[in-house]
Amino acid sequence: MAPADHLVLNPRHIDLARSPLAGHLAAETYVLGAFNPGLTVLPSGNLLMMVRVAEALREPIRDGMVHAIRHEETRYVLDAWPVDLADTADPRKFELHGGGWRIMALTSLSWLLPVELTPDGQRIVDIHYARAIAPVGPWQCYGIEDARISRIDGGYLMTTCSVSPERHSTTLYSSDNALDWTFEGIVLDHQNKDMLVFEGLVNGKYWAQTRPLGDLYFAYPPGSPWRAGPSINLATSPDGRHWQPHLLPGIRPRAGTLATARLGGGAPPILTEVAGRRGWLSLWHGVEPKEIVGIYRTYWTLLDEHEPWRAIAGSPAPLLEADPALTEPLDEMMYMHGVVFTTGIVDAGDHFIVASGEADLACRITLVPKSAFHDEPPG
User: Fold this and answer.
1) How do the domains of the chain map onto residue ranges?
2) C-alpha 180: how far from chain center
3) Which GO molecular function terms does the record list (predicted)?
4) How far apart are CA 336 and CA 338, in angstroms?
């Protein structure tokens, strides 16, 4: 079986008349992207993608002002800043000058949309607008991003990134059926983009990958195999709600390559067997610096079943790369290139069903045969 790719959902599928923002703004919006889907298996056997819908202003700059959408109590409002105080080179965001440190605002607001697929991930069964997850408090007034879903002991946990001026936090939801979700609160109260809960307990504890961010990193010693920068850390919890960082490091950028100069979590680790070894399969993203955004690729590491801070297999070669042929029919919508961002995985026997965001625009489903995983230690 060879890897097979297709875009299962794109902005044309989204009906903004059924958006949580519909009727709130005196300005036209459009779908900047429908991407980065969390993925899981429903009790029915169908698959469920939790899709990030980035709803953007059609004209963010007008009358000398640049605008952002913000949730406020029970409504959505527009904020405006003088455009000469802003750097608007990135279509997804703008930076405001003069604050003494980096201050950013978004040209879109993201909410989460459940999309049901056939068990093979090839077709849409239903789009559950009535079960969309939108901001409900000031901790997510600038939106909810990048869901990751984990099945554990018959239930589901979903981590999301909630954005506000006070914090860039990780928020947690729980569910019995992966369609109706209960908000459990903030679980990481620092800037952390990629918290992924392992799909199962390790020695009686919940485990998660995290990625705390900052503007300062301390150097590794000269000659170290590691490169300083954003990396994947680990945390444990007795109940899945209260988390303590693990003392030992997780997956780190290697000094010998720029292809993974920055990295972070992708799909929640699942217990499986690849490359002749059994362990926790972690799909993660590596970012090669280039222009504003960089080149995003998906890599894999197999972690020890009982000591998940230990890598037991992996490859320096990317598992997935951006595929321009997939987005060619959407060329008029493209605003970014060279980005594939994996956010979900399902074990389907002799292959994996992998869900990714393609070009921050659409949802990509890739069928990856287990024979594609070859242990290749870095050179």
Assistant:
1) 4-372
2) 20
3) hydrolase activity, acting on glycosyl bonds
4) 7
